[in-house]
Design a protein that fits this description.
The protein is α+β, with helices and mostly antiparallel strands and 261 residues long. It is built from 10 helices and 14 strands. Helix 9 packs antiparallel against helix 10. The longest helix is centred in the C-terminal third of the chain and has 18 residues. This is Carbon monoxide dehydrogenase.
Amino acid sequence: MKPAAFTLDQPSSAPQLAAMLMQRGESRIMAGGQSLGPMLNLRLARPSHVVSIASLPELVAVEETADAVTIGACVTHAAIADGRVPDIGKGILPAIAQGIAYRAVRNRGTIGGSLCHADPAADWLCTLTALDAAVLTLSSEGGRAIALTNFVVGPFRNALAPGEIVQAVRIPKISLNARWSYYKACRKPGEFAHAMAAVLLDPARNIRRAVIGAVGGAPIVLDGANLAPDIAERALMQSGLDEIGRGMQLTALRRAMEQAT
């Protein structure tokens, strides 16, 4: 199928984008188009305007400081996988990006687009939540920082207000003695995971966190003493997964914990 007719808008700056979003009625943002493109073709989305943001310089900027890396929302998975973006330590970001879908998707798909799409089985959503990342937003009224633990409010639903976009993702660097692991179960490489878990143990920053993704909604976050298997099982019971699904998720969590300790 082909998409319904729409008007393509291409702002040249972030301020112009913010103003455009306030003026447009039914519009959708497009960065790499790896999620929105198929939705348009299947007519699951029928916006009157599509706003292309992939070429905005403010959204592809990368900044590294002593304690964090800030990555523009339109930086591609491939740029991160290839090491063209500073890492937060231990090769974590390239390793995550290299496991996303296939090379053709990584060449176009963006880190910000993936987070905004809020697919429960998305790699960045699970892993960056475990890494205590936050999104930095932009709108005509300014911007704000939203912790990823508060960003996803349901399957394919995020906390952005109308006219607000993600400008960048800020990811704290890990300590030298931190331990990290990410495990996911897929039928074959490149496909969406049926179960996934990420674990960060960073004593220097007083972080002990496990995140379970692909649960049909926002990731399940387990902090501190709540990493025990029985706590995870109770949380999974509330997610609505069936017994097989819960078993797969508990296995993913156990293997991630084993790799991190």
